[in-house]
Amino acid sequence: MITKDSIETAYSFLHQKRNVYIHSSLDWQKDDIEYAIGMYVDDMSPELYESIAGGRTDFLLDHNRFGEDIAQAVEMLEEML
């Protein structure tokens, strides 16, 4: 079951990290954000992750697609609110 609290928490966390990520020019900072999101995904509600991942098991975990994934995740979570 996906709770409103889990959606709000995920949205707040990912939205904040996305905003820093897209404005950062520091590779180490972007890597730190990717790491933090990866750790968050490990503890995230599996149902919520599945609903925003669209069947992808590497959603928010693939370095090459991270920028696209985090933007998509924030958009999807915003729609769920």
Describe the overall structure.
By secondary structure, the protein is mainly α. It contains four helices and no strands. Helix 1 (4-23) runs antiparallel to helix 2 (27-43) and helix 1 runs antiparallel to helix 4 (66-80). The two termini are 15 Å apart.
What's a quick, concise take on this entry?
With 81 residues, the chain is mostly helical.
Contiguous runs where pLDDT drops below 50 for at least 5 residues: none
Mean pLDDT equals 96
SSE series:
HHHH
How many H/I helices? 4
Q: Helix/strand/pairing class, anyone?
A: mainly alpha
Helix content: over 70%
Intertermini distance: 15 Å
Quaternary organisation: single chain
Major sheet summary line: none
Tell me the fraction of residues in β-strands, as a range. Answer: under 5%
Using only C-alpha atoms, the radius of gyration works out to 12 Å
Total count of strands: 0
> Given the C-alpha coordinates, what overall shape results?
globular
Topology at a glance:
Blueprint: H1 4-23, H2 27-43, H3 46-53, H4 66-80
Helix pairs in contact: 1-2, 1-4
Distinctive features:
81 residues; mainly alpha; 74% helix; globular
